[in-house]
Amino acid sequence: MLIFEPDRFMIFLKTNSQNSDFQSLVKLLDAELKIRDGAEHDFYHQFNQIDHLNHVIVAYSNDIPVACGAFKPFDSDSVEVKRMYVPTEFRNKGIASALLKELEIWAGELGYTACVLETGTNQPEAIHMYGKNNYTRIPNYGQYEGKEMSVCFKKLLSIPSN
Q1: Around Cβ 61, how many Cβ atoms within 10 Å?
Q2: Taking a C-beta distance cutoff of 8 angstroms, is the pair 78, 113 a contact?
Q3: Angle between the N-to-C axes of helices 124-132 and 95-109, in degrees from 0 to 180, rounded to the nearest 10
Q4: What is the pLDDT of residues 127-143, one digit of tens each?
Q5: Model pTM?
Q6: Greatest pairwise CA separation for the chain in angstroms
Q7: Which CATH code is given to the segment(s) 6-156?
Q8: Which pLDDT score, from 0 to 100, does residue 72 have?
Q9: CB neighbours of 14 closer than 8 A, spacing ≥ 6?
């Protein structure tokens, strides 16, 4: 029996939002969120445009794109994690956590010291995954203040010692 080990069988490609595999995965993400978010989808969708994301990672297994994620500057010290997605058939294999770690490393290499993000109450798997990866729930920020479906998180990045 072959056991999937993300660190062993995955390639993480650093790219930007012009990557066609990223765009394809985001279309799947948006279709899923439209169902999960229902009437609130249009509100959230406006904050998830991908036109100008310069820090995108697409994860591949056997040349198949199996996950994506991105970040953008949030403030001078933090990035906001965006567009995290793993298609259904690849979930529960540790891929999202491995991808998140790669995003955190990249943000740290660029000098950022924290990651923030927003997910929704209709994505309990995401809430669980972020908690498992040491993200702490914070008050909803910015456009998500007062939105009952939003759940915001923050994680301080460990600074590598030289």
Answers
A1: 16
A2: yes
A3: 60
A4: 999 999 999 999 999 98
A5: 0.87
A6: 49
A7: 3.40.630.30
A8: 95
A9: 55, 56, 57, 106
The pLDDT mean for the chain works out to: 88
CA distance 136 to 50: 26
Query: Which three-class secondary structure state does DSSP give residue 71?
Result: strand
Which residues have a Cβ under 8 Å from the Cβ of 152 and sit 6 or more positions away?
Answer: 116, 117, 118, 137, 138, 139, 140, 141, 144
Cβ–Cβ < 8 Å for 82, 70? yes
| Inter-residue contact 85 to 28 (CB < 8 Å) | yes
| Gap between the Cα atoms of 23 and 16, Å rounded | 10
Q: Would you say how long the chain is, in residues?
A: 162
| Alpha-carbon torsion, ordered 2, 4, 9, 15, to 10 deg | 150
Of 133, 128, 118, residue with least CA distance to 74: 118
Which is nearest to 151 in space by CA: 133, 162, 139, 159? 139
Number of neighbouring beta carbons within 10 Å of residue 142: 12
Q: What is the pLDDT of residues 11-64, one digit of tens each?
A: 999 999 999 999 999 999 989 888 776 666 566 555 566 678 999 999 999 899
Sorted by where each begins, the domain ranges of the chain are: 6-156
